[in-house]
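Hi! If you just cloned this repository, the fastest way to understand the data is to look at a raw example. We've pasted two of them here, unedited. The first protein comes first, obviously.
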Amino acid sequence: MPICAALASTLLLAQTVLPAAPAPLSVRLTSDVAECPSLLQVQSALRQVLGDGQRAAGGWVLSYGRDPSAPQAEREASVLMELIDPAGQGLAVRQIPASPGDCVAIASAMAAVVERSLRTLGWTRGEPMPESARPRNLPQSPAPAARKPLPRLVLGAGPSIGSSSRMGANLLLEARVRVAGPFCMRLGGGVLAGSESQNVGSGKASVSSRTFTAAALAGFALGRMELAGGPALLLAFDHASSDSLAQGGSGDREVLAVGAAIGVAARLSPRWRLSLGLEGFRVALGANYVVDLAGKKTVVLTPFPWEGIASAKLEFVPWP
C-alpha cells in the first residue's frame, strides 16, 4: 500500500507540474519563390515543429520570398519571411541567408523562427493562441510594419472631377511603378475628352481636350493605410474649331501645367485597395487661340490658370 500511494502521488505531481502538450497549429503559406525552398519543403519543416494541424483558409500566415527592396545582385542571396497573425499583424520578420543547395536548411530555419515566435505567446505551454500577435507583456514595435515594402506595381481606375468645365467629370486610369525604396512614378489619363465652347460674335468657338498626368511620389505604409505625395505634371492636348464665323478654322495646342499630388489608399485585401487623390496645377505653358472678328484678332478659349482634380479609385496590385 505505501508503494501504491507513492506511485499515485508521483503521477499526481507529474500531472500538476508538467505543461500540457501544445495543440497542433496550422500555418498557411504564401510565396513568390518557385523552387528553393518550395512550399512542400516549408510545410514539412513546419509540421515537424507545429504538428499536423487542421488546414484553414484564415488564421496564421507565413509569407516568404525575395526582398524587392534589396539590390538586384543581392536579391537571390536571402529569403525575406514574415509571420502574420489572424488579425493581420506581423509577429516576426526575418532575413534568412539562402544558398541554392540549402533549400531544406532554409525551410528548417524558417520553421525554427516560427516556433520561437509562437513560444513567446505561450503556444508551447498549451495556452490558447491570441487573436493578435501582440502580447500584453511585450513592447509594441512598429519595426516589422516599417520594413514592409510598397507594392512594385499598382493599377487603378475610378471617377475623377476637375475644377474647370473643360476637365469636368471623367473616368481616370492610372498605373504606378515603384522605382526604388519609397519612390514611385505614376502615369494617368482620362478616358473621355472634355469640352468647352465660347460665343464669339455671331458664331461659336469650341475646344475638346484630353489630359494626362505624371507624378513622382514618395509613399509610406502605415499599417493597412498608405500615404503618398510629390510633384506632378498635367499635359493637355486641345483641338479647337470655330463655327458660323466669316473665317472658320481649327487648330491644336498643348498645355503644360505643374503642381503637386497627394493620395491615401486603404488595403481591402492583399491585392485590392481603395484610394482617394487630390491634385492641384498651375499652367506654365500654353498657346492662345485667336479668331478674326470683324478684322480684329480676338483671343478665345484661354487655358484656365489653375486646375484641381479630385479622384476616387479602385486599385489592383498585380506585383508582388
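Ok, and the second one:
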Amino acid sequence: MTRKLMLLVSMLILLVCLSSCTKRCRCQKFNQEIVYFSKEQVSAEGKTCNQMKFRPGMFTQYYSYCEWVYGD
C-alpha cells in the first residue's frame, strides 16, 4: 500500500512539474516595456532568444535584452 501511494504521489508531482510552466522569451525595450515571444515564434524567425533583440529590417537593437523565462 505504501509503495502504491508513493508512486501515485511521485506521478502527480511529475505531472504538475511538466505542465505548470511554459518557457517564453522575454524581451525588454529601452523604455522598460516588456514583450513576450513563445518558443514557436522564436523558432519561426530562425533565431535564438538572445538574437530576438534585433528585429527584421533594423540595423540597431530594438530591445535592450532578451532572455528565456519560465512562467504562465
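That's it. A detail worth noticing about the second one: The longest strand covers residues 22-28.
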